[in-house]
Specification:
With about 120 residues, the protein is an alpha/beta fold. The chain has one domain: Rossmann fold (3-Layer(aba) Sandwich). It contains 5 helices and 5 strands, in the order E-H-E-H-E-H-E-H-E-H. The chain has helices spanning about 15-25, 40-45, 60-70, 90-95, 105-120; strands at about 5-10, 30, 50-55, 80-85, 100. A 5-stranded parallel beta sheet has the order 2-1-3-4-5, with helices on both faces. The longest helix is centred in the N-terminal third of the chain and has 13 residues, at about 15-25. The chain is globular and about 35 Å long. It starts with a strand and ends with a helix.
Length: about 120
Protein backbone atom coordinates (compact mmCIF):
# COMPACT_ATOMS: atom_id res chain seq x y z
CA UNK A 1 0.00 0.00 0.00
CA UNK A 2 1.27 3.45 -0.85
CA UNK A 3 2.00 5.84 1.98
CA UNK A 4 -0.36 8.82 1.99
CA UNK A 5 1.53 11.97 0.96
CA UNK A 6 1.33 14.94 3.32
CA UNK A 7 2.51 18.39 2.24
CA UNK A 8 3.31 20.47 5.32
CA UNK A 9 3.07 24.28 5.26
CA UNK A 10 3.96 25.55 8.74
CA UNK A 11 6.14 28.48 9.88
CA UNK A 12 7.19 27.16 13.30
CA UNK A 13 10.46 25.27 12.76
CA UNK A 14 10.07 23.20 15.94
CA UNK A 15 6.55 22.22 14.90
CA UNK A 16 7.78 21.24 11.42
CA UNK A 17 10.45 18.98 12.87
CA UNK A 18 8.02 17.41 15.33
CA UNK A 19 5.29 16.88 12.72
CA UNK A 20 7.70 15.36 10.20
CA UNK A 21 8.91 12.87 12.79
CA UNK A 22 5.41 11.98 14.04
CA UNK A 23 3.92 11.64 10.58
CA UNK A 24 6.77 9.50 9.28
CA UNK A 25 6.46 7.24 12.34
CA UNK A 26 2.77 6.79 11.48
CA UNK A 27 3.61 5.79 7.90
CA UNK A 28 3.04 9.03 6.03
CA UNK A 29 5.29 10.32 3.25
CA UNK A 30 6.01 13.94 4.34
CA UNK A 31 7.26 16.93 2.37
CA UNK A 32 7.78 20.09 4.43
CA UNK A 33 7.87 23.52 2.82
CA UNK A 34 9.71 26.60 3.95
CA UNK A 35 7.18 29.07 5.33
CA UNK A 36 7.50 31.43 2.37
CA UNK A 37 7.47 28.79 -0.38
CA UNK A 38 4.84 28.90 -3.10
CA UNK A 39 2.34 26.43 -1.67
CA UNK A 40 0.22 26.25 -4.83
CA UNK A 41 3.28 25.41 -6.96
CA UNK A 42 4.34 22.81 -4.38
CA UNK A 43 0.92 21.13 -4.55
CA UNK A 44 1.28 20.85 -8.32
CA UNK A 45 4.77 19.38 -7.98
CA UNK A 46 4.31 17.04 -4.98
CA UNK A 47 0.67 16.03 -5.68
CA UNK A 48 -0.09 15.37 -1.99
CA UNK A 49 -3.03 13.42 -0.67
CA UNK A 50 -3.45 16.12 1.96
CA UNK A 51 -2.07 19.60 2.64
CA UNK A 52 -1.54 20.29 6.36
CA UNK A 53 -1.32 24.08 6.55
CA UNK A 54 -1.13 26.71 9.26
CA UNK A 55 -3.57 29.61 8.89
CA UNK A 56 -0.82 32.15 9.67
CA UNK A 57 2.43 31.73 7.74
CA UNK A 58 5.26 34.29 7.86
CA UNK A 59 4.32 36.45 4.88
CA UNK A 60 1.32 34.52 3.59
CA UNK A 61 -2.21 33.82 4.71
CA UNK A 62 -3.19 30.17 4.73
CA UNK A 63 -6.76 31.26 4.02
CA UNK A 64 -5.66 33.14 0.89
CA UNK A 65 -3.70 30.06 -0.22
CA UNK A 66 -6.78 27.90 0.45
CA UNK A 67 -8.84 30.24 -1.77
CA UNK A 68 -6.25 29.88 -4.57
CA UNK A 69 -6.25 26.08 -4.24
CA UNK A 70 -10.04 25.85 -4.36
CA UNK A 71 -10.24 28.17 -7.39
CA UNK A 72 -7.50 26.34 -9.36
CA UNK A 73 -9.18 23.62 -11.39
CA UNK A 74 -6.15 21.32 -11.53
CA UNK A 75 -5.61 21.18 -7.74
CA UNK A 76 -9.04 22.10 -6.35
CA UNK A 77 -9.71 18.56 -5.12
CA UNK A 78 -6.62 18.30 -2.87
CA UNK A 79 -7.67 17.71 0.72
CA UNK A 80 -6.70 20.51 3.10
CA UNK A 81 -6.37 20.26 6.88
CA UNK A 82 -5.88 23.71 8.43
CA UNK A 83 -4.44 24.48 11.88
CA UNK A 84 -4.22 27.59 14.02
CA UNK A 85 -3.85 28.83 17.57
CA UNK A 86 -6.88 31.03 16.87
CA UNK A 87 -10.34 29.54 16.70
CA UNK A 88 -11.03 30.11 13.01
CA UNK A 89 -12.51 26.68 12.33
CA UNK A 90 -15.77 27.96 10.85
CA UNK A 91 -13.97 30.35 8.50
CA UNK A 92 -11.57 27.62 7.35
CA UNK A 93 -14.38 25.16 6.70
CA UNK A 94 -16.59 27.73 4.97
CA UNK A 95 -13.70 28.59 2.62
CA UNK A 96 -13.19 24.98 1.63
CA UNK A 97 -10.92 23.29 4.18
CA UNK A 98 -11.69 19.62 4.77
CA UNK A 99 -10.78 19.84 8.47
CA UNK A 100 -9.37 22.05 11.21
CA UNK A 101 -7.07 21.50 14.20
CA UNK A 102 -6.86 24.00 17.06
CA UNK A 103 -3.30 24.43 18.36
CA UNK A 104 -1.91 23.10 20.53
CA UNK A 105 -3.18 19.66 19.62
CA UNK A 106 -2.24 16.15 20.63
CA UNK A 107 -0.74 13.74 18.07
CA UNK A 108 -3.80 11.48 18.37
CA UNK A 109 -6.03 14.41 17.36
CA UNK A 110 -3.83 15.02 14.31
CA UNK A 111 -3.96 11.37 13.23
CA UNK A 112 -7.73 11.19 13.76
CA UNK A 113 -8.27 14.31 11.67
CA UNK A 114 -5.90 13.11 8.94
CA UNK A 115 -7.73 9.78 8.68
CA UNK A 116 -11.09 11.59 8.48
CA UNK A 117 -9.85 14.02 5.83
CA UNK A 118 -8.25 11.24 3.77
CA UNK A 119 -11.42 9.12 3.88
CA UNK A 120 -13.57 11.87 2.32
Amino acid sequence: MLKPKVLLAEDDFTMVSLLKTLLKMEGYDVTALDADDDVVAAIRKVKPDVLLMDVHLFSQSGLDILDKVRSSEDISKVRVLMSSGSNVKEECLSRGANGFLMKPYMPDDLFTQLKQVLSV
